[in-house]
Amino acid sequence: MTEPPEARTGGAAIPSVASVARILLTGGAGFIGSHVRSALAGTDVVVLDSLRPDVHRERPAVPDVLVGDVRHPDDLDRALRGVDAVIHLAAKVGLGVGVADFPDYADSNVHGTAALLAAMSRAGVRRLVLASSMVVYGEGAGHCAQHGPVRPAARRVSDLEAGRFEPPCPQCGAPLEPAMVDEAAATDPRNAYAATKLGQEHLAAAWAIATGGSVAALRYHNVYGPGLPVDTPYAGVAAIFLSALRGGRAPLVNEDGAMRRDFVHVRDVAAATFAALAHDGGFRAFNVGSGTPRTVGELAATLADAEGGPAPRVTGRYRLGDVRHLTADSTRIRRELGWQPHVEFADGVAELAAAPVAVIAS
Hints:
seven-stranded parallel β-sheet, globular, disordered N terminus
Protein backbone atom coordinates (compact mmCIF):
# COMPACT_ATOMS: atom_id res chain seq x y z
CA MET A 1 0.00 0.00 0.00
CA THR A 2 1.41 3.40 -0.98
CA GLU A 3 2.20 5.81 1.83
CA PRO A 4 0.15 9.01 1.88
CA PRO A 5 2.09 12.18 0.94
CA GLU A 6 2.30 13.33 4.55
CA ALA A 7 4.14 10.12 5.49
CA ARG A 8 6.75 10.69 2.81
CA THR A 9 7.35 14.33 3.66
CA GLY A 10 8.05 13.98 7.36
CA GLY A 11 4.53 14.18 8.79
CA ALA A 12 3.08 17.30 7.15
CA ALA A 13 0.71 17.40 4.19
CA ILE A 14 1.96 19.09 1.02
CA PRO A 15 0.19 20.75 -1.90
CA SER A 16 -1.18 18.37 -4.51
CA VAL A 17 1.17 16.96 -7.14
CA ALA A 18 -1.62 15.16 -8.97
CA SER A 19 -0.25 16.42 -12.29
CA VAL A 20 2.97 14.46 -11.74
CA ALA A 21 2.29 10.93 -12.97
CA ARG A 22 5.76 9.84 -14.15
CA ILE A 23 9.10 11.03 -12.75
CA LEU A 24 12.62 10.78 -14.12
CA LEU A 25 15.17 10.32 -11.31
CA THR A 26 18.75 10.90 -12.47
CA GLY A 27 21.49 9.44 -10.31
CA GLY A 28 18.88 7.14 -8.84
CA ALA A 29 21.35 4.33 -8.13
CA GLY A 30 23.41 6.49 -5.76
CA PHE A 31 23.34 7.05 -2.01
CA ILE A 32 20.68 9.75 -1.87
CA GLY A 33 19.00 8.41 -5.00
CA SER A 34 18.27 5.04 -3.42
CA HIS A 35 16.47 6.73 -0.52
CA VAL A 36 14.56 9.04 -2.88
CA ARG A 37 13.37 5.94 -4.74
CA SER A 38 11.97 4.63 -1.45
CA ALA A 39 10.23 7.97 -0.81
CA LEU A 40 8.67 7.69 -4.29
CA ALA A 41 7.34 4.17 -3.69
CA GLY A 42 4.09 3.67 -5.56
CA THR A 43 4.96 6.38 -8.09
CA ASP A 44 5.90 5.66 -11.71
CA VAL A 45 9.64 6.37 -11.67
CA VAL A 46 12.24 6.09 -14.41
CA VAL A 47 15.74 5.70 -12.93
CA LEU A 48 18.64 6.92 -15.07
CA ASP A 49 22.20 6.37 -13.87
CA SER A 50 25.54 6.16 -15.66
CA LEU A 51 26.90 3.71 -13.04
CA ARG A 52 30.31 5.37 -13.48
CA PRO A 53 33.06 3.29 -11.87
CA ASP A 54 34.35 6.02 -9.55
CA VAL A 55 30.92 5.91 -7.87
CA HIS A 56 29.91 2.24 -8.25
CA ARG A 57 32.47 -0.53 -7.96
CA GLU A 58 29.75 -3.09 -8.66
CA ARG A 59 26.40 -2.67 -10.38
CA PRO A 60 23.86 -1.85 -7.63
CA ALA A 61 20.68 -3.87 -7.31
CA VAL A 62 18.37 -1.30 -8.86
CA PRO A 63 15.48 -2.86 -10.80
CA ASP A 64 14.79 -1.48 -14.27
CA VAL A 65 17.56 1.12 -14.18
CA LEU A 66 18.28 2.81 -17.49
CA VAL A 67 22.04 2.91 -17.87
CA GLY A 68 22.76 6.25 -19.50
CA ASP A 69 24.55 9.55 -19.11
CA VAL A 70 22.88 12.92 -18.65
CA ARG A 71 25.49 14.39 -20.99
CA HIS A 72 24.19 12.27 -23.88
CA PRO A 73 21.07 13.59 -25.67
CA ASP A 74 19.97 10.16 -26.93
CA ASP A 75 19.99 8.73 -23.40
CA LEU A 76 17.98 11.71 -22.14
CA ASP A 77 15.40 11.62 -24.93
CA ARG A 78 14.79 7.94 -24.23
CA ALA A 79 14.49 8.48 -20.47
CA LEU A 80 12.15 11.48 -20.73
CA ARG A 81 9.40 9.78 -22.73
CA GLY A 82 6.09 10.27 -20.95
CA VAL A 83 7.74 12.06 -18.00
CA ASP A 84 5.99 14.91 -16.12
CA ALA A 85 8.79 15.91 -13.71
CA VAL A 86 12.51 15.38 -13.18
CA ILE A 87 14.48 14.93 -9.97
CA HIS A 88 18.10 15.62 -10.91
CA LEU A 89 20.59 14.06 -8.51
CA ALA A 90 23.27 12.92 -10.97
CA ALA A 91 26.50 14.79 -10.24
CA LYS A 92 30.15 14.45 -9.34
CA VAL A 93 30.27 15.22 -5.63
CA GLY A 94 32.84 16.11 -2.97
CA LEU A 95 35.50 18.77 -2.62
CA GLY A 96 37.78 17.11 -5.15
CA VAL A 97 41.46 16.30 -4.92
CA GLY A 98 42.97 19.09 -7.00
CA VAL A 99 42.71 21.49 -9.92
CA ALA A 100 43.02 18.52 -12.29
CA ASP A 101 39.47 17.61 -11.22
CA PHE A 102 37.99 20.85 -12.61
CA PRO A 103 37.19 19.60 -16.13
CA ASP A 104 35.37 16.50 -14.87
CA TYR A 105 33.34 18.53 -12.36
CA ALA A 106 32.36 21.05 -15.04
CA ASP A 107 31.55 18.37 -17.61
CA SER A 108 29.59 16.13 -15.24
CA ASN A 109 27.68 18.81 -13.36
CA VAL A 110 27.36 21.89 -15.57
CA HIS A 111 27.36 20.31 -19.02
CA GLY A 112 25.22 17.43 -17.75
CA THR A 113 22.61 19.80 -16.33
CA ALA A 114 22.60 21.93 -19.48
CA ALA A 115 22.02 18.83 -21.61
CA LEU A 116 19.21 17.69 -19.30
CA LEU A 117 17.48 21.07 -19.43
CA ALA A 118 17.68 21.13 -23.22
CA ALA A 119 16.20 17.63 -23.39
CA MET A 120 13.42 18.60 -20.96
CA SER A 121 12.58 21.50 -23.25
CA ARG A 122 12.40 19.15 -26.25
CA ALA A 123 10.15 16.79 -24.30
CA GLY A 124 7.90 19.53 -22.91
CA VAL A 125 8.73 18.72 -19.27
CA ARG A 126 8.31 21.80 -17.07
CA ARG A 127 8.97 20.67 -13.49
CA LEU A 128 12.44 20.11 -11.99
CA VAL A 129 13.75 19.28 -8.53
CA LEU A 130 17.48 20.00 -8.54
CA ALA A 131 19.91 18.61 -5.97
CA SER A 132 22.04 21.62 -5.11
CA SER A 133 24.25 22.06 -2.05
CA MET A 134 24.94 24.30 0.90
CA VAL A 135 28.48 24.77 -0.44
CA VAL A 136 27.19 27.52 -2.76
CA TYR A 137 27.26 29.87 0.26
CA GLY A 138 30.98 29.60 0.89
CA GLU A 139 31.88 30.56 4.46
CA GLY A 140 28.32 31.12 5.65
CA ALA A 141 27.42 33.94 8.00
CA GLY A 142 28.90 35.55 11.09
CA HIS A 143 28.05 38.10 13.77
CA CYS A 144 30.55 40.68 15.00
CA ALA A 145 30.05 42.20 18.45
CA GLN A 146 30.86 45.63 17.01
CA HIS A 147 29.56 45.49 13.43
CA GLY A 148 26.65 43.06 13.71
CA PRO A 149 25.88 40.60 10.87
CA VAL A 150 28.81 40.33 8.46
CA ARG A 151 29.99 38.01 5.74
CA PRO A 152 33.25 36.33 6.77
CA ALA A 153 36.14 36.87 4.40
CA ALA A 154 38.08 33.94 2.97
CA ARG A 155 40.58 32.58 5.46
CA ARG A 156 44.25 33.37 4.83
CA VAL A 157 46.82 30.60 4.50
CA SER A 158 49.09 32.38 6.99
CA ASP A 159 46.35 32.26 9.63
CA LEU A 160 45.58 28.60 8.94
CA GLU A 161 49.27 27.71 9.18
CA ALA A 162 49.41 29.47 12.56
CA GLY A 163 46.35 27.60 13.84
CA ARG A 164 44.06 30.64 13.66
CA PHE A 165 41.07 28.92 12.13
CA GLU A 166 38.21 31.29 12.89
CA PRO A 167 37.44 33.74 10.06
CA PRO A 168 37.67 37.30 11.41
CA CYS A 169 35.33 40.22 10.92
CA PRO A 170 36.24 41.73 7.54
CA GLN A 171 35.93 45.23 9.03
CA CYS A 172 37.74 45.06 12.37
CA GLY A 173 39.42 41.65 12.47
CA ALA A 174 37.65 40.57 15.66
CA PRO A 175 36.45 36.97 16.08
CA LEU A 176 32.96 36.24 14.78
CA GLU A 177 30.08 34.30 16.29
CA PRO A 178 28.82 31.81 13.66
CA ALA A 179 25.29 32.44 12.37
CA MET A 180 22.87 30.40 10.30
CA VAL A 181 22.33 31.20 6.62
CA ASP A 182 19.03 31.46 4.82
CA GLU A 183 18.38 31.35 1.10
CA ALA A 184 18.76 35.14 0.76
CA ALA A 185 22.45 34.92 1.71
CA ALA A 186 24.93 35.81 -1.00
CA THR A 187 26.57 32.90 -2.78
CA ASP A 188 30.35 32.53 -2.72
CA PRO A 189 31.55 29.14 -4.05
CA ARG A 190 35.10 28.33 -2.98
CA ASN A 191 35.93 25.05 -4.71
CA ALA A 192 35.18 23.27 -7.98
CA TYR A 193 32.18 21.35 -6.67
CA ALA A 194 30.62 24.48 -5.19
CA ALA A 195 31.16 26.43 -8.41
CA THR A 196 29.48 23.74 -10.49
CA LYS A 197 26.50 23.41 -8.12
CA LEU A 198 25.92 27.15 -8.39
CA GLY A 199 26.32 26.81 -12.15
CA GLN A 200 23.56 24.21 -12.15
CA GLU A 201 21.30 26.62 -10.26
CA HIS A 202 21.99 29.48 -12.68
CA LEU A 203 21.25 27.28 -15.69
CA ALA A 204 18.05 25.99 -14.11
CA ALA A 205 16.91 29.53 -13.28
CA ALA A 206 17.54 30.63 -16.88
CA TRP A 207 15.64 27.57 -18.14
CA ALA A 208 12.68 28.41 -15.89
CA ILE A 209 12.54 31.94 -17.33
CA ALA A 210 12.83 30.71 -20.91
CA THR A 211 10.25 27.92 -20.65
CA GLY A 212 7.91 28.96 -17.85
CA GLY A 213 9.06 25.92 -15.92
CA SER A 214 9.33 25.35 -12.17
CA VAL A 215 12.59 24.62 -10.34
CA ALA A 216 13.02 23.69 -6.68
CA ALA A 217 16.77 23.85 -5.99
CA LEU A 218 17.42 21.93 -2.78
CA ARG A 219 20.57 23.07 -1.01
CA TYR A 220 21.32 19.86 0.87
CA HIS A 221 23.52 20.20 3.93
CA ASN A 222 25.78 17.39 5.18
CA VAL A 223 23.84 14.23 4.36
CA TYR A 224 24.55 11.00 6.24
CA GLY A 225 22.80 7.70 6.86
CA PRO A 226 22.66 4.03 5.84
CA GLY A 227 24.26 3.31 2.49
CA LEU A 228 26.77 6.13 2.85
CA PRO A 229 29.64 5.47 0.42
CA VAL A 230 33.16 5.28 1.83
CA ASP A 231 36.73 4.77 0.62
CA THR A 232 36.68 7.37 -2.13
CA PRO A 233 38.70 10.60 -2.39
CA TYR A 234 35.39 12.45 -2.92
CA ALA A 235 33.70 11.21 0.27
CA GLY A 236 32.19 13.53 2.85
CA VAL A 237 33.45 13.84 6.39
CA ALA A 238 31.08 11.26 7.92
CA ALA A 239 32.21 8.69 5.35
CA ILE A 240 35.88 9.48 5.97
CA PHE A 241 35.46 8.98 9.73
CA LEU A 242 33.47 5.80 9.28
CA SER A 243 36.02 4.35 6.88
CA ALA A 244 38.80 4.96 9.42
CA LEU A 245 36.82 3.39 12.25
CA ARG A 246 35.89 0.34 10.17
CA GLY A 247 39.63 -0.06 9.54
CA GLY A 248 40.43 0.13 13.27
CA ARG A 249 41.95 3.60 12.97
CA ALA A 250 41.21 6.79 14.88
CA PRO A 251 39.22 9.37 12.89
CA LEU A 252 41.51 12.27 11.98
CA VAL A 253 39.78 15.60 12.59
CA ASN A 254 41.09 18.63 10.74
CA GLU A 255 41.79 22.02 12.31
CA ASP A 256 40.65 22.00 15.96
CA GLY A 257 37.45 20.04 15.37
CA ALA A 258 35.21 23.02 16.12
CA MET A 259 33.98 23.51 12.55
CA ARG A 260 30.17 23.73 12.56
CA ARG A 261 27.98 21.85 10.11
CA ASP A 262 24.36 20.76 9.81
CA PHE A 263 24.20 16.97 9.56
CA VAL A 264 20.87 15.89 8.10
CA HIS A 265 19.72 12.28 7.76
CA VAL A 266 19.30 10.88 4.27
CA ARG A 267 15.70 9.81 4.88
CA ASP A 268 14.83 13.38 5.85
CA VAL A 269 16.58 14.56 2.68
CA ALA A 270 14.60 12.08 0.59
CA ALA A 271 11.38 13.32 2.18
CA ALA A 272 12.33 16.91 1.37
CA THR A 273 13.04 15.90 -2.22
CA PHE A 274 9.60 14.33 -2.53
CA ALA A 275 7.98 17.40 -1.00
CA ALA A 276 9.77 19.67 -3.49
CA LEU A 277 7.74 18.15 -6.34
CA ALA A 278 4.90 20.35 -5.10
CA HIS A 279 6.75 23.57 -5.93
CA ASP A 280 5.09 25.29 -8.86
CA GLY A 281 6.18 28.61 -10.28
CA GLY A 282 9.65 29.69 -11.36
CA PHE A 283 12.97 29.13 -9.61
CA ARG A 284 13.06 28.75 -5.82
CA ALA A 285 15.96 27.68 -3.59
CA PHE A 286 15.37 25.74 -0.38
CA ASN A 287 17.85 24.88 2.38
CA VAL A 288 17.54 21.29 3.57
CA GLY A 289 19.10 20.84 7.01
CA SER A 290 18.28 19.55 10.46
CA GLY A 291 18.37 23.04 11.95
CA THR A 292 20.73 21.92 14.73
CA PRO A 293 24.42 22.82 14.29
CA ARG A 294 26.99 20.22 15.32
CA THR A 295 30.76 20.36 15.26
CA VAL A 296 32.82 18.03 13.11
CA GLY A 297 34.60 16.91 16.26
CA GLU A 298 31.26 16.01 17.82
CA LEU A 299 30.37 13.89 14.79
CA ALA A 300 33.72 12.06 15.00
CA ALA A 301 33.32 11.38 18.73
CA THR A 302 29.71 10.20 18.38
CA LEU A 303 30.64 7.85 15.55
CA ALA A 304 33.64 6.51 17.48
CA ASP A 305 31.43 5.78 20.49
CA ALA A 306 28.80 4.08 18.34
CA GLU A 307 31.44 1.97 16.56
CA GLY A 308 33.33 1.18 19.74
CA GLY A 309 36.46 2.39 17.97
CA PRO A 310 39.44 4.55 18.90
CA ALA A 311 38.83 8.14 19.95
CA PRO A 312 39.23 10.85 17.31
CA ARG A 313 42.56 12.60 16.95
CA VAL A 314 42.59 16.33 16.22
CA THR A 315 45.37 17.03 13.72
CA GLY A 316 45.47 20.81 13.29
CA ARG A 317 45.70 20.24 9.53
CA TYR A 318 43.51 22.09 7.07
CA ARG A 319 42.35 21.83 3.46
CA LEU A 320 42.26 24.83 1.16
CA GLY A 321 38.69 25.30 -0.03
CA ASP A 322 37.12 24.09 3.20
CA VAL A 323 34.95 26.53 5.09
CA ARG A 324 34.92 26.98 8.84
CA HIS A 325 31.21 27.19 9.68
CA LEU A 326 28.17 26.58 7.52
CA THR A 327 24.76 25.78 8.95
CA ALA A 328 21.29 26.19 7.53
CA ASP A 329 18.11 28.03 8.28
CA SER A 330 15.50 25.72 6.74
CA THR A 331 12.46 27.81 7.65
CA ARG A 332 11.45 28.32 4.02
CA ILE A 333 10.99 24.64 3.13
CA ARG A 334 9.16 23.99 6.39
CA ARG A 335 6.81 26.89 5.80
CA GLU A 336 6.21 26.57 2.06
CA LEU A 337 6.35 22.80 1.49
CA GLY A 338 5.34 21.43 4.89
CA TRP A 339 8.56 19.44 5.36
CA GLN A 340 10.39 18.92 8.63
CA PRO A 341 13.23 16.61 9.70
CA HIS A 342 12.47 13.77 12.08
CA VAL A 343 15.66 11.72 12.59
CA GLU A 344 17.54 12.79 15.73
CA PHE A 345 21.31 13.09 15.41
CA ALA A 346 22.18 10.44 18.01
CA ASP A 347 19.69 7.97 16.52
CA GLY A 348 20.89 8.63 13.00
CA VAL A 349 24.56 8.17 13.88
CA ALA A 350 23.77 4.94 15.75
CA GLU A 351 21.90 3.66 12.69
CA LEU A 352 24.80 4.61 10.43
CA ALA A 353 27.27 2.79 12.65
CA ALA A 354 25.10 -0.34 12.63
CA ALA A 355 24.46 -0.38 8.88
CA PRO A 356 26.60 -1.79 6.07
CA VAL A 357 28.30 0.83 3.95
CA ALA A 358 28.96 1.06 0.25
CA VAL A 359 32.67 0.69 -0.54
CA ILE A 360 33.55 2.61 -3.68
CA ALA A 361 36.31 2.32 -6.19
CA SER A 362 39.00 4.88 -5.39
